[in-house]
Description:
Elements: H1 2-18, H2 23-40, H3 43-48, E1 50-57, E2 63-65, H4 66-74, E3 78-80, E4 85-93, E5 96-109, E6 112-127, E7 130-140
Parallel strand pairs: 1-7
Antiparallel strand pairs: 1-2, 3-5, 4-5, 5-6, 6-7
Amino acid sequence: MRRALLLTAMAVAGIAQASPPTLAAQLKAQADAWDRAIVAKDRAAIEANMADDFRQIDARGNVETKASFVDGLVSPDLVLHPYTVEDFEVRVYGDTALLSGRTRMTGRYQGQPFDTHYRYIDVYVKRGGAWQIVSVQISPLAR
Length: 143
């Protein structure tokens, strides 16, 4: 009888612990909000998710800083359509998290339509209790 009560208490505790969002779900929600901010060209929200020492390695191997990356996203030359992420995955290693997936991005650049398909990895680091993106790398995929 005591064993049954202990197992029941453990099960209830497990359910209670499972009800708050998991870290992976929190990071997914943060990444989704960042994607929406990018499409909306919300500079403050884009920058709030990024560490000051952020770097991006683009599809051509170029390195972008936080400033150049954000400036490119909010440029009037760029119009992004809403997009979704496929094959999304979160892997956490202590205070570092790797978020990866595939996306097809469409829009216009300098008035010309574009359609890109790529795989990416975003590296988040927990600093001062907050998760921020420190690095992005993208690799083009065949269309």
